[in-house]
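Reviewers of the previous submission asked for a worked example of the structure-prediction workflow described in the proposal, so we include one complete record here. The input consisted solely of the amino acid sequence. No template or homolog information was supplied to the procedure at any stage.
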Amino acid sequence: MAPPRNVVKIAVQMRDAIPQLIRLDQAKPLAAVLKEVCDAWSLVHSERYALQFADGHRKYITENNRTEIKNGSILCLSTAPDLEAERLLGGLQCGSRERRRETLQHLVLLAPDMTFAQEVISRDGLQRLGTIIEDGDDLGELLALALRAFLELMEHGMVSWETLSIPFVRKVVCYVNMNLMDASVQPLALRLLESVTLSSPALGQLVKSEVPLDRLLVHLQVMNQQLQTKAMALLTALLQGASSTERKHMLDYLWQRNLRQFIYKNIIHSAAPLGDEMAHHLYVLQALMLGLLEPRMRTPLDPYSQEQREQLQALRQAAFDPEGESLGTGLSADRRRSLCAREFRKLGFSVSNPSLAPHPCLNPGLLCSRGLESLLSYLSLFPQNSNPAQDLERVPPGLLALDNMLYFSRHAPSAYSRFVLENSSREDKHECPFARSSIQLTVLLCELLHIGEPCSETAQDFSPMFFSQDQSFHELFCVSIQLLNKTWKEMRATQEDFDKVMQVVREQLARTLALKPSSLELFRTKVNALPYGEVLRLRQTERLHQEGTLAPPILELREKLKPELMGLIRQQRLLRLCEGTLFRKISSRRRQDKLWFCCLSPNHKVLQYGDVEEGSSPPTPESLPEQLPVADIKALLTGKDCPHVREKGSGKQNKDLYELAFSVSYDHGEEEAYLNFIAPSKREFHLWTDGLSALLGSPMGSEQTRLDLEQLLTMETKLRLLELENVPIPEQPPPIPPPPTNFNFCYDCSIPEP
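From that input alone, the workflow returned the following structure tokens.
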């Protein structure tokens, strides 16, 4: 007979004692259970003891988490958390170095437990650890252990980082700035300063003023991957906390000190594989670097700015007056205006639009005489109701489009002149408008590169190409505008086809950027190897995979094949769950420096999971401390329904979490509990949600299942129809002939053959 649902069979062990095998009644108070366990070992004062899980992080059992105890769990009897905290904090005052080292090691081991952390913090444990860190009597293992214990306690979020004192932060800064320092101390000090910078603007300014950028560059150039990662984390935190102007100055200085070249050669192309955390920080650095373009993207061209008017004239002169000759020397004013308007029109500006409304700056009383003369001289170049500056008033791209055009004309003058003159010689309807194309292409690049959007807190999608050279965005534009001209000619496009050309160019750029080319030259090679004809072929191939416009007999065959193939997909999903996956823990500040591993048992009955260290190989299922029976799972939740993302709001920065989050709810005693996941990628999200749905007997409805099923159906259908190649398949089956007039054609097997 099965035991009641609230009774579990467990083992309880204690040092130098025979383990007890007991039936734990979850309805019984924990104090009564402890009393029975202590009585069995003849121990008095049961209130001085507590139960812990024997494996994993040795979490203390409380009334809140006791439902995590499952059949077969192994517990151990240990000192109560309040007494253990008192004992360890007392050990910190001991004069023996060895005793203090053992105390700190034990403190680091127990600090991840919330119950123990509450007891330590309530007894001023953070202040005592802070004193050890500030004193700095030992700059080796003791200091590293104290920093680690301090960080583990602060990660629980019970104490705000803003409460840290300025002398304490300055002391940690000293450890970062020291030259001869233990290799285990500085990564922890950098991690602490990163948390301070992200959580407290005031202390973040202190860190920024006390930690020189040159010092972080020194840490980045040390061939220690952990130190590099934490230095990069602090650097990106400082950049995120800076204003736009300060961020530009900081990045300019770092680029002058060759940080970009070092990242490209020694981090991205390092012999050691790039860690997930470093990949995320490189993504943030790339986003901040491209984000410097946002002010120009958001600023419209001011037709009354002398500098911007001169830039427009320089753009025209580079195409039509390469020798620097003045426009229409010796011509009348009307002739000069007509010639200038025609040249701007050849550049692709729409100079025939109505002019701008009068600007307040046109009031002579608000302009100096020289500025007014310059403005009137500029406006005199154009006929009435025409002005090329109007095309650049749209934001985005604003002045960024003008910057791109000027960069192209100055750094690739031959290609620029060839583009303009080649299109000027075409028929009016077949010419590719340079200015209009540049403006739209700049918008397209900003969308593809997410310029002006907030950084994702989990993404790792950086492109090595942007660290391969300076001015990478403008160089990318130079390649893209020449690609646009090439595609225009391949499509034999007219002005009416402009939007179609831009759609093809978007597809060419998006497909090539997805390949993450390591350099601009490689990007140029790959994108030029994707001409319009290849784009059409890829579109047709994808359309054939997606469309269901097939003959009814083939559709019927596909329907018959679906159950078998869905079973194959289900088998693959469960095998993937058995292999297991590393997931990242997202704390209240969305830190990602902790990993945990989860897998399905070979018999498909238990989910096994537990924490693992960064860089370690995936653990075996037997070594994982936690278990969740599949039979206890009630439901699978995804996206905004998950409890660990439900309270995070609906901002753009949380969109990626919604797309990767899923949870399973299960019975936890009388309460409902959740096991929460953040998938490392969209594919892993689909594989896990499909596998869990299969375990729960629900349909596998992910996009990945649809794609896999379509691919398998296509392959299997083609294999079945190989013998019918070039044989037309009728829309309707052939008619069944009428039955014969008699059935006297049966062969009598009893008559022997002669």
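DSSP finds 30 helices and eleven strands in the chain. We consider this example representative of the routine output the project will generate in years two and three.
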